[in-house]
Amino acid sequence: MTEKEFIEYIGSKATLDYQQSGILASITIAQACLESGYGTTDLAINANNLFGMKTTLSGNTWKSAWDGKSKYTKRTKEEYKPGIITTITADFRKYPSIDKSVEDHSLYLSQAKNGSKLRYPGLVEEQNYKTAIQIIKNGGYATDNSYVQKICNLIEKWNLTKYDIKGDINMGYTNSSLVTYTKLSPNHSGARTHTIDRITPHCVVGQLSASGIAGCFTNPGVQASCNYGIGTEGGVALIVEEKNRSWCSSSNANDQRAVTIECACDSSQPYTFNSTVYNKLVELCVDICRRNGKNKLLWISNKEKALNYTPASNEMLLTVHRWFANKSCPGDWMYSRMGELAEKVTKKLKKSTTSSSTPKHTTSNSTYPKAPFVVQITGTMKYFDSKGKNRKELGEIKKGTYTIIETSGKWGKLLSGAGWIYLNYTKKL
Ligand SMILES: [Zn+2]
After folding, report:
1. How far is the CA of 26 from the centre of ligand 1 (A)?
2. Fold of 181-351
3. How does pLDDT run along the chain (429 residues), one tens digit per residue?
4. How remote is the CA of residue 229 from the centroid of ligand 1, in Å?
5. Distance from the CA of 321 to the center of ligand 1, in angstroms?
6. What Å distances lie between residue 94 and 11, 27, 33, 69, CA to CA?
7. Residue 297 and residue 399: Cα distance in Å, rounded?
8. Domain residue extents for the chain
9. Looking at the domain that runs over 373-428, which CATH code has it been given?
């Protein structure tokens, strides 16, 4: 990877992280470049650790994304006294991915404390990179006296402020076109902090219609919701948009990454779904997988294994409510069919045809800036699994603004990971 490629690689991750953590992407990228030698240090290569994060950092008085045990031991040079370099052996955090390193670093910067006070007060949501890096230096992040200047130089040299994209932007999440009824619930946490890689089917306990299921979640007092409801007649209700985190599975970690679906069923054991509801669930799962760039739905019946499993970028994992709470949800009838559901959906996904359509008209001849950038879409637009000749159509996105995190010719990749769109049909903001 060249220096430029490293910045593009880390850039999209830093933008996504900024939207969640409030730590400027330009700061994260510049620190990653400086502290990992553009991703070339031992620590970056062997431990996915871009920021030299040690195991004992700041007394671990903050909510970490590190697992608390994986480590990498190496010799390191430290400047404890100005101008005097000492070599010591130290334990560093080892991460399963670069994403985790970025996430952990931002959690540290936003939450680490010195006694009862934040180490880096005012850093979260600080919009000026010069102020932000001074706060970081003042909190004792680096001992190098020229640290602030080095970071500012990198931000200016690579024009990194263009990665500081935040605001009311659609991450590229879409809702199902199978929806027949929409009644949005006030009960949700806003934007997800994790991309969609799980589906959790639930049993609503009652042969309710789609509108009836939606009606269960309109009152803020119930403190519950789901993304979709499938009614006994086969209607599909949109209750919490896919871009948002629903309150459904008694697990924050699960609901941040899952599309949750309440299904009409009998009101007593084994909470049987009628065949219309079950078939609609298959159809909806196919649609959710497709729109989120997945071609494989997995069922791992062992709870421990399933919850520790990291799905590949093309995989969607099924989970169940009973793993997170003392409930029988989704009921024994559905629980015994989870493997079959995964198989049916995957079979349909593999059958999906290759699109051979080529764009017929162009509305723009501009060249595109380095990603990430934001585009506007004025009508609906198709998106694909790749930008190649053999690309498969995955679905349609609605009009709105979308963040592009990677470009290839006239194709752009959506931030959500849902797929690629043809940029000539879009307007650059
Ligand atoms: Zn449930």
Report:
1. 41
2. Lysozyme-like (3.40.80)
3. 899 989 988 987 898 888 788 899 999 999 999 999 999 999 999 999 999 999 988 777 888 999 999 999 998 777 677 778 888 888 999 999 999 999 999 999 999 998 889 999 999 989 999 999 999 999 999 888 899 999 999 999 999 998 887 654 456 788 998 999 999 999 999 888 888 999 999 999 999 999 999 999 999 999 999 999 999 999 999 999 999 999 999 999 999 999 999 999 999 999 999 999 999 999 999 999 988 888 999 999 999 999 999 898 889 999 999 999 999 999 999 999 999 999 999 999 988 644 333 333 333 434 677 777 778 887 788 888 888 778 888 888 877 778 888 888 888 888 877 889 988 878 776
4. 12
5. 5
6. 21, 22, 18, 8
7. 28
8. 3-163, 181-351, 373-428
9. 2.30.30.40
CATH code assigned to 3-163: 1.10.530.10
Q: Which residues contact 183 (CB under 8 A, 6 or more apart)?
A: 211, 214, 215, 218, 237, 238, 239
Q: How far is the CA of 334 from the centre of ligand 1 (A)?
A: 12
320 C-alpha to center of ligand 1: Å?
7
Q: Three-state SS for 229? A: strand
Distances in Å between the alpha carbon of 211 and those of 215, 263, 266? 6, 12, 17
